[in-house]
Amino acid sequence: MITIESWMSLAGNIGFPIVVTFFILFRLDQCLQNLDKSIDHLTEEVKRKHE
Question: What parts of the sequence cross the membrane (predicted)?
Fold first, then answer.
């Protein structure tokens, strides 16, 4: 996990807009992974109900 200090260092080195973009993409990736797991779980439950 990336710490606040790491984000602040990145902001100072490469610029605030780029860091914000990376942060949003990082968070979006986590949300999409959770959504993928939920869909997989739901698919398995539906398969189990129809057997």
Answer: 6-28
